[in-house]
Amino acid sequence: MPFYQVKDKYVFLYLSNYNKLNDIALKDKEPSWTFSSKIKGRKENIEAKKLREKTINHIYKNSPYDQFYKEWIYFDLQNHKDILEDLPYLLYDYGCINKLFSYREIHDDTMQTFFPDLYYDKDCQYELALFSKGGLFKKQEKIFSTIIDIREIVSIKGELNDFTIEVRDKTLHFGMTITIS
Questions:
Q1: pLDDT 10s digits, 3-48
Q2: How many Cβ atoms are within 10 Å of 152's Cβ, its own excluded?
């Protein structure tokens, strides 16, 4: 999902907020235009991005900060379906902000091994990794990594640049650095 920066905060558009913003920003558009706006590279897609950004900035300017924060910046994902849908986007967007972070899906199922083009499983594991800063002639090296099973996640709370993933046996905090407790 796209994310937007409003002043010094990031607005992570998890699926329900993405749909809400689309309803507001694209309300005057025809269904065929809205369909075309979902195709990357089309002029409708570019216009839709600009409309969403303009709309989120308009909402920010015309809302009390506390209300805007609760509705658009802070997220609290506890429903398993929401976590399944939004976690890959959250990790991707966090990686865009924290260039030293990366993630990858891990599938350990036999069906995935033998039929990768036919198999799709949202209930997977993710390897989360943090890398060192690379220099001019020095490549990045993996400093640390951990694996989380999406079925073990209890909740995800916070802001795009400062959130916590609570797993049954540990808590992962993503901010300027990543900590596990």
A1: 899 988 999 999 999 999 999 999 998 888 888 888 888 899 999 9
A2: 13
Q: Compute CA distances 108 → 11, 124, 128, 139, 147, whole Å.
A: 33, 8, 16, 30, 13
Q: What is the DSSP string of 38-68?
A: TSTTSHHHHHHHHHHHHHHHHHHHTS-HHHH
Report the run of H or E that residue 86 belongs to, with start and end.
helix 80-97
Residues 174, 124 contacting (CB under 8 angstroms): no
Query: pTM for this one?
Result: 0.82
The residue whose two tokens read 């690379």 is 134
Strand partners, 131: 142
Determine the Cα–Cα distance for residues 94 and 160; give it in Å rounded to an integer: 6
Contact of 49 with 128, CB cutoff 8 Å: no
Instruction: For residue 140, give both structure tokens.
Output: 């990045």
AA identity, residue 171: T
The amino acid present at 28, given as its one-letter code, is D
d(CA 181, CA 166) in angstroms, rounded, equals 10
